Each structure stands twice: as C-alpha cells, then as structure tokens.
C-alpha cells in the first residue's frame, strides 16, 4: 500500500492543531516540508519529549512526508533552548544519512512560535499571504507527533493513543501516553490533586485552551494537555468571562492604544489584522459587521487578550464575536493581493515566552513534566467520530459487537474529507450515539 493510503487508513490527523487529515495534506506538492517542534504553549512538554524519545521515528516520518510531497528540503524547527534535543536530532539525521535532505533550525523562544504562519516565516523567511495556508508559499507543515504517527502508520499501526501533559498548580506534573477514548477525569486523576473541586481545567495550553465547564469529556487524537489551576487564578477568571460580558466591557473601556495590534503576530507578518479597529467598531455599531472582515484574519492565539492589552480587555473574544456574525451572513474576507512584508518593527515586538509565562501568573508552575508510565485500565472508552476537520466518521460496528484493540470502528464517508477512527482497547460496543462510540473494555476471548 502506498504512503497516502497507509496514513489515511491509520487515521493520522494533525496532532498539534485543528486535526486536519494528514493524508489530504500530503496530496500536495511543496518545496519544503517543515516539522513544527516549537511547542509554544506554556507548560506543555509533549513534543520536546517525543523528539527525545523517538528521534528516528520522527525523522523517518518527516522524511516520508517530505518525499511524498516532493519537497527538496525538510527543516525541523525546534526552540534553541532545547539544546539536548537539537543535538540528538542532528546526530540522528547524520547517522541516518539524511544531512543532504534534512536540517534542524533553532527557533527563538517567542510566542506563538508554533503558529504555522510564524513558523514558516521563522524557518524560510517567506510570508504566507492573508487567509492562505503555508502551501501557498511552497511549505507543508506537520507537527512532531504527527511525524511519529506517520512513521507508525507505515508500520501498519493506527492512531489509538496520544501524548498529554498534565500541568499547572498540582503536586505531580507529568506527560503521559494515553489511549484515545479514556475519560479526561481518569487522566487528570493521575496528578495527585486531592481537592479537585477547587480546580478548573483548561483543555489544551494556557493560551489557546478553553476552560472545561464540566470535566466529563474523553481524550481524542488531538488532546495535548490539561492545565489545572485554582478556580480563582487570574487565567481561569479571565478565560471564564462570557462573550457578552467581554463585549460590554470592551465597548466601554477600550482606550484605543492599539497595543493589541502592535504586538499581534499576524499584523507583524504584514497582514491587515488590527484588533484595535475591531474593538473600535464594537464601540459604535455591533450590527455593522461587513467592515470588520479583518476579524477573519485572527488565528486566535490570544496574545492580545492575555498579554498585550494594558486594560485587560478581550480583543480576541471580540474578534470571535465578529467572526461568528460574518459567518452567519456568509461574508468572507477578501485578501489583499500583494507581496506581504514583515513590519519593520517585528523583531522588537516579539513576545518572549518567559515574559508571557510571568504575565499569565504561571512562573511557579513552569516546571518539567516528565514522561511517566501509567497503565490505563478504563471500564469504558468513548471514541468520538469527529476528532478531525471534515465529515464525521461513519460507524462500521454495531451495539453488542466485539472489537479488538486497533480495529477500525468508524470509516470516512464516501467522497469526503475525513479520517477513520479505531478502538484503543479490546471490548464490546455498548452504545453508538452523540457522534461517538462507547466501548465496554474487556477481554472476550
Ligand atoms: S490593547 Fe486593549 S485598550 Fe488598547 S486598543 Fe487594544 S483592546 Fe483597546
Ligand atoms: S488573537 Fe489577537 S494577537 Fe492573536 S492573531 Fe488574533 S488579534 Fe492577533
């Protein structure tokens, strides 16, 4: 079977972002294949440890992806502060005879170094045009865990597990290999907190993750981290403000200082994203959304809301509000047709990760989260049929049916973009509803 079909059948999706099906990404042709090893979300420690634990597999996965898209060069982007990982990767690239094809480049320790468009610029000096994807400038980007999953797919192994950092104001910070479908409760139960009611849980990193209203979900292929903080922590209070409240506060308190714009990573790449203008529009006429199409250029990195704004307002949330309204009215931003240049002041306006961590009130928790061996023995797992961009998978099993670990349980609908899903344990299908398959775990032989 060829690589595209192996990757497709294994259900590989982008492990670092929205979950775009990888086989679809690899149908393109590009000059560069880039490995996103930036891991710029504070406190998360997955990618750096995977690169240390599985260097050859990640290199092989990246190489295979690069050859597939006919890239002339593969570049790994890893933050310069991870000296050990960089040394190891360079050594293994050389040992595997790939120095002509692959190199490691050191990234600055800035936020958001892992944003695809920032990464492309940092590694190639190219700028992805507004509202476009890296392919537009000859680049395909995959993240470290995705490269690992590509390598495993070549060996016939479907994606049934993911790596997750559990971090925050907790006794034991750790990174775990977790079977897809295990309950989040079970994962965060490993971190030694004995008063869980005092905590809120952020699903993902502190910057882009959202606070879970109820911790009743299940791990998906995209799950990367859970950050536990006391409910009265600044970040939890800030992230818990409703959109309506953010709107009311912004309308009355924005002083139009434009710090949100001046530090916006997309604005600094020359795009027209100017959140202070969206905030200004808010002060006048919320219904007049047509002129706020720039909101669609926002990558939701949250830098404006959690770092830049001196008045502690919510420009990212307001962007989201306008994005929603624009979508409801079917209005799409018309990108500027031009050669984008980074703003001249960009180098002086990058956000240092350490400063960001301090501003978020997370310095005390910015600690290692070592890879820890935990054997999960859940009673049930719930596998979501849509863990990716595209159409939900269609169940190919029935209630009462026995399944094996790694067995296909949901397939891609015909002629659709999507990814299949597999069971991560042996067991019996107990329920199929709410776009998910519940499996009672247990041997049936
Ligand atoms: S940084 Fe804050 S106060 Fe300044 S323009 Fe942006 S939203 Fe308004
Ligand atoms: S969240 Fe704010 S800083 Fe980030 S891209 Fe959007 S407007 Fe810019």
TrEMBL record:
Domain RnfC Barrel sandwich hybrid stretches: 378-437
Pfam families to which the protein is assigned, alphabetical: Complex1_51K, Fer4_17, RnfC_N
GO annotations of cellular component type: membrane
Record keywords: 4Fe-4S, Electron transport, Iron, Iron-sulfur, Metal-binding, Repeat, Transport, Ubiquinone
Residue ranges of every copy of the NADH-ubiquinone oxidoreductase 51kDa subunit FMN-binding domain listed in the record: 7-151
Cross-referenced InterPro entries: Helical_ferredxn (IPR009051), Ion_transpt_RnfC/RsxC (IPR010208), Nuo51_FMN-bd (IPR011538), Nuo51_FMN-bd_sf (IPR037225), PduS (IPR017054), RnfC_N (IPR026902)
GO molecular function annotation: 4 iron, 4 sulfur cluster binding; electron transfer activity; metal ion binding
Domain of life: Bacteria
UniProt-listed SUPFAM superfamilies: alpha-helical ferredoxin, Nqo1 FMN-binding domain-like, Nqo1 middle domain-like
Protein name (Swiss-Prot/TrEMBL): Putative NADH:ubiquinone oxidoreductase, subunit RnfC
Species annotation: Desulfosporosinus youngiae DSM 17734
């Amino acid at each position: 079977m060829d690589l595209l079909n192996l990757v497709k059948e294994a259900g590989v999706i982008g492990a670092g972002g929205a979950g775009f099906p990888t086989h679809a990404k690899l149908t393109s042709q590009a000059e560069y294949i880039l490995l996103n090893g930036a891991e710029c979300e504070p406190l998360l420690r997955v990618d750096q440890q995977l690169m240390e634990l599985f260097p050859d597999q990640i290199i092989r996965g990246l190489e295979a992806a690069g050859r597939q898209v006919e890239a002339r060069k593969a570049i790994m982007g890893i933050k310069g502060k991870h000296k050990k990982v960089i040394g190891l990767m360079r050594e293994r690239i050389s040992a595997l005879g790939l120095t002509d094809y692959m190199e490691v480049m050191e990234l600055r320790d800035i936020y958001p170094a892992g944003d695809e468009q920032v990464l492309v610029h940092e590694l190639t000096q190219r700028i992805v045009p507004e509202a476009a994807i890296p392919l537009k400038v000859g680049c395909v980007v995959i993240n470290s865990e995705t490269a690992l999953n590509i390598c495993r797919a070549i060996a016939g192994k479907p994606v049934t597990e993911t790596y997750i950092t559990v971090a925050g104001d907790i006794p034991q910070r750790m990174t775990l290999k977790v079977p897809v479908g295990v309950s989040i409760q079970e994962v965060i139960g490993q971190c030694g907190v004995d008063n869980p009611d005092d905590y809120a849980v952020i699903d993902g990193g502190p910057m882009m993750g959202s606070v879970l209203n109820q911790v009743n979900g299940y791990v998906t292929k995209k799950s990367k981290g859970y950050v536990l903080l006391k409910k009265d922590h600044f970040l939890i209070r800030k992230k818990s403000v409703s959109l309506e409240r953010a709107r009311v506060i912004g309308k009355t308190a924005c002083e139009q200082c434009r710090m949100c714009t001046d530090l916006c990573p997309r604005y600094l790449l020359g795009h027209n994203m100017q959140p202070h203008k969206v905030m200004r529009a808010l002060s006048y006429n919320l219904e007049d959304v047509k002129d706020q199409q720039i909101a669609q250029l926002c990558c939701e990195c949250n830098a404006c809301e959690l770092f830049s704004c001196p008045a502690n307002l919510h420009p990212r949330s307001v962007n989201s509000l306008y994005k929603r309204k624009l979508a409801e009215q079917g209005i799409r931003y018309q990108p500027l047709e031009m050669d984008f240049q980074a703003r001249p002041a960009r180098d002086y306006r990058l956000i240092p990760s350490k400063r960001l961590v301090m501003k978020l009130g997370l310095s005390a928790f910015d600690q290692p989260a070592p890879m820890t061996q935990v054997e999960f023995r859940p009673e049930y797992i719930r596998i979501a049929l849509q863990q990716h961009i595209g159409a939900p998978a269609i169940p190919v099993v029935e209630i009462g049916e026995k399944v094996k670990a790694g067995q296909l349980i949901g397939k891609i609908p015909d002629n659709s973009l999507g990814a299949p899903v597999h069971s991560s344990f042996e067991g019996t299908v107990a329920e199929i509803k709410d776009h998910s398959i519940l499996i009672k775990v247990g041997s049936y032989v």
